Amino acid sequence: MEDIIVTEDNGRDQYLGTKVGEKVFSTDVDTLIPLRAALGYEMMRSLIEQQKTLLVSNATEALYLNWFSTRLREKGRAGLDPAWKIVPCGGGEKIGAFLGLFGVNKGKVVALIDVIGRHEELRDSELVRGCDILTMDKYVEDGAQGGIEELIGRPTYFRLVNLCYKLPRKTRLRPMKPGVIEDVAGQPKHLVHEVEEHFAACGPEAGTFDRYRPVEFMAENTRKCEKKLPELSSALDRFEKLFEDINACS
Fold this sequence. Notes:
The chain has 250 residues and is α/β, with parallel strands linked by helices. Helix content is 44%, strand content 14%.
């Protein structure tokens, strides 16, 4: 179905009505919107149906999980069971909407989220009934809160950023401060925010920080990272505990 609109000589658009036809490959944007929506829904439904689905916030988290799972399995340790399909869904606040669309009746669903203020509210929602929710703070030392970077750890993550951006000595990140760094409101400061502030303070010389680049560098330089990242063994221990808990939700 397409709206038929013609432009008159005076430049005004005139609406002639709606045409129903067999032209499947229409180029009209309005016509394609429901087709795109239906196709996207069907592709996602076929991806997660009858599967074990692990919901994460974004592609960055998915890549870190895959990288650490692969390293653990190489060492004969517990990685993420291959039966789990990692699906980025946009964060904890969108999990309810995701499950409302696709449900959890035919497969097992686990949501891995940061610690958020609405966490308990999310647990009590009818939309997430049947979905297990894991928060990353359970696997992080020193009571830190934040994203998957906290699971990697400050020394390891800071060194990864230094390697990725080839920061000169005077602008390198240095995890000198023990414990949790707090913001002006007294809340734990996320590692990503610390790095962003560091880059901003260094000025144009350091460039702009992109959260995705370190994990991309990690994937492309695995052996280099295994040799040069400090306290990587501790990070592997934390990820192994996370994977064991996810696998136990089968």
